[in-house]
Design a protein that fits this description.
heterodimer, A: 6-stranded antiparallel beta sheet, 11 strands, B: about 450 residues, 3-stranded antiparallel beta sheet, disordered N terminus
Chain lengths: ~150, ~450
């Protein structure tokens, strides 16, 4: 084994040692600054809330009417709260006889979208469940008001 | 004291992938050192490299899988760092083996296997570190019993003048190492309950608020008894360790800097008394002040270690190229001298940094821990680790008088290695609890039956 080889082995080993030390430090560094902000949205168990139509893969940005007389109406979620109803002040104005003037609204709280029934006559449904309180909704959730179905989309 | 991490604005990630990556690097550090030793001594890669490396890999993978399964949020850096230190230690012990024709490295590998097994066992058996708070007084009693054991005739064995060993069949065991861990649990369990009384009730004497006797009494007695036993056994390193540990935990629990003043005074008083009373303390101090006065006699070990450091210089002689076997006990207390000689200051700094990282991660776990008991245990373990490294490295490099202690994870020594693995397991458990995201408590607050229950503070049963 030549002198040079042994020298190179020694240098290489010291390099490995320090690479290890520095990677450990860089992991600590990223651990300090790289943690993500908690999204309370990440829903834990919400027994009473109906299952969301599809798993959330990000935040919805708009509401679209997907079924009913007014299919195609779109409202931007950036103007939250979004009011759904027959009244003139509603962001999604529906010509559905089964919808109240101020029927339901979609609000944001702590990074999570909720749909809330505003005391409508015929009720707001998520799946087969009639809402009695604000319920978290996410991307793909289908909200039924009267004979109309509204969906949260990206 | 109970800061929760969610309030600080972020949650921790699991980082198990990062841990795996670092573990692979740690294996390269350990196995690479083994290969380099073979290359340096025999001029060829050792024949059993595959078997040795495979075994080491198996141990590390087992530890990693255990962490992944039972402590998924645990700190990602601790395990790789100690794995690297252990691997490097094994290689250096193997190097000394080759020079002295002994077989300590394979014994150490056996101990490491036992250590990793206990590491996994601790993580599995201890789903929550707060369970340990139940054993506050039990562990204190056990610590004292363990410390007394070597003085029992027939059981205790005297090795190299210090009566700190017990022999169980073919194995000899150092109970003081276990006592170290048990005392941390005792102090933490006691202080977390009594720290308000300790900090607030009492009277002021000169500069210091002294707590009431009934608050401080039990813990002070525990400490005096264990310290007294160690002094009787002439185990100065451990006495220093326990003294410092007690002081740090008292200071952290009560947040009174006065304890540090009292501690420093007690330390200097005790040190002076020990210097007057004990002949071996005097000789240690004399060696420290002037090792070259008797370079071939009492100062031989330290002088040879210093020559080793000097000969190694910045880059070292290269593994297998030096003569670390000159230094007596180079495989245990003086292993850092062997590293300094063959790998140089560069590697010594890396090793010290790794120890620093272990202490930092332990203190980090203490900072983010949500319960007082976890905070105190993590702080205590960090203090034990830091003090032990300081005392032994300071002694070897002639910064302070030499007292015999093992270098954690590097030195040859079964009891120390096994206990240190358990300590790391407990630290990982605390950090796992601390980094775990809080259960979702906010929504649907009306129905108390469906809310997640979170235990914040456990008051140990008495």
């Amino acid at each position: 084994m030549s002198e040079l080889t042994l020298f190179l082995v020694r240098i290489a080993y010291l390099a490995i040692l320090w690479i290890f030390v520095l990677s450990a430090i860089s992991v600590i560094r990223s651990d300090m600054f790289g943690a993500r902000v908690p999204s309370p949205a990440a829903p834990g168990k919400q027994p009473r809330a109906p299952k969301q139509a599809s798993p959330r893969r990000g935040q919805p940005t708009r509401v679209e009417v997907v079924q009913g007389v007014n299919t195609g109406i779109v409202a931007d979620l950036s103007q939250a709260p979004v009011l759904i109803g027959r009244g003139n002040d509603a962001a999604i104005r529906l010509d559905d006889d089964y919808v109240s003037t101020r029927h339901a609204r979609i609000v944001e709280s702590g990074g999570q979208w909720y749909v809330e029934d505003l005391g409508s006559t015929n009720g707001t449904y998520l799946g087969s469940q009639r809402l009695t309180q604000p319920v978290p909704v996410g991307l793909g959730s289908q909200i039924r008001v009267g004979k109309t179905i509204v969906e949260l989309r990206k | 004291m109970a800061t929760n991490s969610a309030l600080m604005g972020f949650v921790h990630r699991r980082r198990r992938g990062a841990e795996l990556f670092l573990l692979v690097l740690a294996l390269v550090v350990g196995i690479g050192a083994y290969a380099a030793v073979g290359l340096g001594v025999d001029g060829e890669v050792p024949a059993n490299l595959i078997g040795y490396g495979g075994w080491l890999t198996l141990l590390v993978v087992a530890a990693h899988v255990a962490v992944r399964v039972v402590a998924p949020y645990a700190d990602p850096v601790l395990l790789p760092v100690v794995a690297a230190l252990n691997g490097l230690g094994l290689a250096v012990i193997h190097r000394v083996d080759l020079a002295k024709d002994t077989g300590l490295a394979s014994q150490q590998l056996t101990w490491m296997t036992l250590g990793v097994a206990l590491f996994v066992g601790t993580l599995v058996a201890l789903p929550d570190h707060r369970l340990l708070a139940r054993f506050t007084y039990t562990s204190g009693l056990a610590a004292i019993v363990l410390l007394v054991l070597p003085m029992v005739p027939g059981l205790g064995t005297s090795i190299n003048g210090a009566k700190i060993w017990i022999s169980l069949g073919p194995f000899s065991f150092q109970p003081g190492e276990v006592a170290k861990l048990l005392l941390v649990i005792t102090f933490a369990g006691y202080l977390v309950v009594h720290r308000d009384a300790l900090a607030l009730a009492g009277r002021r004497v000169v500069f210091v608020d002294l707590p009431r006797g009934r608050d401080l009494g039990p813990i002070l007695m525990m400490w005096v008894v264990s310290l007294g036993i160690l002094v009787l056994q002439r185990d100065l390193g451990s006495s220093l360790l326990f003294f410092g540990l007690f002081l740090v935990m008292l200071y952290v629990a009560t947040e009174r800097p006065g304890w540090l003043v009292v501690g420093a005074l007690l330390f200097f008083g005790g040190a002076t008394a020990a210097y007057r009373l004990f002949g071996h303390v005097q000789s240690r101090v004399d060696i420290w002040l002037d090792p070259f006065a008797d370079a071939d006699g009492k100062g031989y070990q330290l002088v040879q270690a210093l020559y080793g450091f000097a000969w190694g210089g910045l880059m070292g002689r290269g593994l297998g190229e030096g003569m670390p076997e000159r230094v007596p006990y180079v495989e245990s207390d003086f292993i850092l001298a062997a590293i300094g000689e063959e790998l140089g200051l560069t590697a010594v700094m890396a090793v010290l940094l790794l120890y620093g990282l272990v202490v930092e991660r332990a203190l980090r776990a203490a900072l983010i821990s949500r319960d007082g008991f976890g905070k105190l245990v993590a702080t205590g373990l960090a203090a034990v680790f830091a003090l032990q490294v300081f005392v032994v490295v300071g002694g070897v490099t002639r910064l302070i008088p030499l007292t015999g202690l093992t270098t954690p994870f590097l030195s040859y020594g079964g009891s120390s290695l096994v206990v240190n693995w358990v300590i790391i397991a407990i630290l990982l458990r605390i950090s796992d609890q601390a980094r775990r995201p809080l259960p979702d408590l906010t929504p649907d607050a009306e129905d108390p039956d469906e809310q997640a229950t979170q235990l914040v503070k456990v008051v140990p049963q008495r």
